[in-house]
From TrEMBL:
UniProt-listed InterPro entries: AlkZ-like
Source organism per UniProt: Actinomadura montaniterrae
UniProt keyword annotation of DNA-binding present: yes
An example molecular function term from Gene Ontology annotations: DNA binding
Keyword line: DNA-binding
Name listed for the protein in its UniProt record: Winged helix DNA-binding domain-containing protein
Taxonomic classification: Bacteria, Bacillati, Actinomycetota, Actinomycetes, Streptosporangiales
Top-rank lineage group of the source organism: Bacteria
Length: 365
């Protein structure tokens, strides 16, 4: 008989793997590997995400890992930017390509005249010469392919050429208009020529399990995730959730008692934890899920209390005062507000070290 895992049990298992039951003292690159990537649509959120997970984390730790090329920021899961370890990027970039090819369909009529067999080699040649911004790449490609939409040219390069973003000394590691380099030129090795879907799914379970086939597909964007799980079934533990859906996990993976305490934590915008499952009740109630994204599809920063997303948060820095505003989905008990205020003040001191004062408020909506 298959054991059933409650939503609470899934919450604690996932938090344990995402380093959110207690801060861990491990090197930055090791943590990013354990998390199997950190979504990095914008440069600042990974710094906050790592601060919430690692004991003693400081921005220079991430800067160093980016500049020594231990970590890279590149297009990966769901065709979005992620921080990945260099070995993981090289191992799994090819597995992403079918999903990235499918993403090209969003171009619609703008893809008229776009010949990837010509554009991709031309782009590789430009980026092999030296790192370039996408404005440069588009302009140079437009000279060679004047009848093709310039945005379509740029998007094709992002989806079909393995690239990494070049870090700088900017506060959060990257400027607004960053340069891109070819992955092979930056890392001294090309991505593996072979897809590694089975290993990819195993690493997903290690970081986000127990999970269903739909969860794995949602996280990766790969339709092949379910097939990989079927091939791996003999090597996996199988459970059911409270709705009878099949869940897979690694044998011996951490599944803490569901009553293990979970501390208050602040997750940044686009955090992978709130995007890694089709059924996200293990982190956020269905009733609150629409509050996660804005009309322009930004993924809001959320705060956790007792393991679950209880609201969104935002900061403001003005006149040397750093302010954090909590916007709870529902009224919270005083104990929760006290714990969140203490964690929030620590977050403000990390994010705005020059502030003369820090303030945590609860918005009345």
């Amino acid at each position: 008989m298959v054991d059933t895992l409650s939503v609470q049990a899934l919450n604690r298992a996932t938090l344990a793997r995402q380093l959110l039951l207690s801060r861990e003292r491990v090197p930055v690159a090791e943590a990013v590997g354990q998390l199997f990537g950190i979504q990095a649509q914008e440069p600042k959120p990974p710094f906050v995400g790592l601060w919430s997970r690692l004991e003693g984390f400081q921005p220079p730790d991430l800067h160093a890992a980016l500049h020594d090329r231990t970590l890279v920021r590149a297009t990966m899961m769901r065709a979005t930017l992620h921080l990945m370890t260099a070995p993981d990027y090289l191992a799994f970039r090819t597995s992403m390509q079918p999903m990235l090819d499918t993403a090209m369909r969003v171009l619609g009529d703008r893809a008229k005249g776009l010949d990837l067999d010509e554009v991709v080699p031309a782009a590789r040649s430009l980026l092999d010469e030296r790192p370039r911004t996408f404005n440069e790449v588009r302009a140079l490609l437009q000279e060679r392919f004047p009848d093709v939409n310039d945005r379509a040219l740029g998007y094709a390069v992002r989806m079909c050429v393995p690239l990494v973003m070049v870090p700088t000394a900017d506060r959060w590691g990257f400027p607004r208009s960053a340069e891109f380099a070819s992955a092979e030129g930056w890392l001294g090795a090309a991505p593996s020529a072979d897809a590694a879907d089975d290993d990819l799914v195993l690493r997903y379970l290690e970081a986000f399990g127990p999970a269903s086939a739909a969860d794995a597909q949602t996280w990766s964007g790969l339709r092949s995730a379910g097939d990989a799980l079927e091939r791996l079934r003999p090597r996996l533990a199988v459970f059911a959730d409270d709705k009878g859906r099949e869940l897979f996990d690694l044998l011996g993976a951490p599944r803490p008692d569901e009553d293990v305490p979970a501390p208050a934590r602040f997750l940044p915008e686009f955090d992978s934890l709130v995007l890694a499952h089709a059924d996200r009740r293990r982190i956020i109630a269905d009733a609150h899920r629409p509050s996660l994204t804005t009309k322009n599809l930004r993924v809001r920063a959320v705060f956790l209390w007792d393991g679950f997303a209880r609201g969104v948060w935002e900061t403001e820095y003005k006149r040397k005062v750093a302010t954090l505003r909590l916007r709870p989905f529902e009224p919270l008990p005083r104990a929760a507000l006290d714990e969140l205020a203490a964690e929030g003040e620590a977050l403000l001191r990390f994010a705005e070290p020059d502030a003369k004062d820090t303030v945590v408020t609860v918005a009345e909506d």
